From TrEMBL:
Family: Belongs to the isocitrate and isopropylmalate dehydrogenases family.
Catalytic activity, EC: 1.1.1.83, 1.1.1.93, 4.1.1.73
Role of this protein: Has multiple catalytic activities. Apart from catalyzing the oxidation of (+)-tartrate to oxaloglycolate, also converts meso-tartrate to D-glycerate and catalyzes the oxidative decarboxylation of D-malate to pyruvate.
UniProt keyword list: Manganese, Metal-binding, NAD, Oxidoreductase
A Pfam cross-reference name: Iso_dh
Organism of provenance: Paracoccus marcusii
The protein, known as: D-malate dehydrogenase [decarboxylating]
Pathway terms, separated by semicolons: Carbohydrate acid metabolism; tartrate degradation; 2-hydroxy-3-oxosuccinate from L-tartrate: step 1/1; Carbohydrate acid metabolism; tartrate degradation; 2-hydroxy-3-oxosuccinate from meso-tartrate: step 1/1; Carbohydrate acid metabolism; tartrate degradation; D-glycerate from L-tartrate: step 1/1
Catalyzed reactions: (2R,3S)-tartrate + NAD(+) = 2-hydroxy-3-oxosuccinate + NADH + H(+); tartrate + NAD(+) = 2-hydroxy-3-oxosuccinate + NADH + H(+); (R)-malate + NAD(+) = pyruvate + CO2 + NADH; (2R,3R)-tartrate + NAD(+) = 2-hydroxy-3-oxosuccinate + NADH + H(+)
Amino acid sequence: MTHRIALIPGDGIGIPVTEAALRVMEASGADITTKSFPWSCDHYLQHGRMMPEDGIETLRGFDAIFLGAVGWPARVPDAVSLHGLLLPIRKAFVQYANIRPHRLLPGVEGPLKTRDFDILCIRENTEGEYSGAGGRVHQGTPDEVAVETSIFTRAGVERILRFGFEQAQARRGKLASVTKSNAQRHSMVFWDEVTDELAADYPDVAVTRYHIDAMCARMVMAPESLDVVVASNLFGDILTDLGAAIQGGLGFAASANIDPTRRNPSMFEPVHGSAPDIADQGIANPMAAFWSAAMMLDHLGQTAPAARIMAALEAATARGIGTHPGRDTTDAVTTAVLAQL
């Protein structure tokens, strides 16, 4: 089956890594057709919108979305670019599971003493602290008030936890649920209660509850003790950047925004962002984009091309290609992976 992929290269280094990922997918034997959309901060400056009014309906006709990176804060505030493109896509397509794998590729040196870890972080992706509920009044006066309201629904919390339990069943049978229920006695206590309720449905999964600060320490001190980690939107966002750090840097951090029901297209993206400081220098590491592409193909059922991409990038890093930020050009890393393919 040929799958239709919507490409959104976006801003900064998102453009070259998307081009590189497309070359790698085509060389892997993936059965895909693609269409590229120029939605970005440049698009916003020209049209006053990050994407057209019918952007969501346009994307609905695709099997998956591949995003390079979006954002250029010197030109467009991050709050505008994020709420104008990335968050609307996640919410409209009910991509409630953000999945990020954290492990060291062969030849990559992380900052920790151990190499022995393989963590799958699952972040709730559509509500919680990033719900966007709130407002500001009396702006610019001494009486100014800003309110940001976190929204946790039973449906939202239960579905992300069930997804986490199912991933743990398919892996090593361990689930870590992350909250801050000692301080946030409403939303986070609620999350803990739902975790305990669902644990009875998954007796083959060992469940441990951690506070966010303790989990940050554990990911540094004992990452090998972790298997599947599930957290809210904000906590998952923080933990996955820490996960990227221990796996050698953002250049290796891949992600998937999944609708597990498969009623809507899911979106795949490297985590590194648009990195305006190195845009147009040709030194962006495309490894995270390649890994994200492999995750996309695997999600679509094209498991053989996905496996070939992962084998090729691991063979390249084992030879020292792309293992040090800025040392190898984007083209050099891409050429090495294509050679392995």
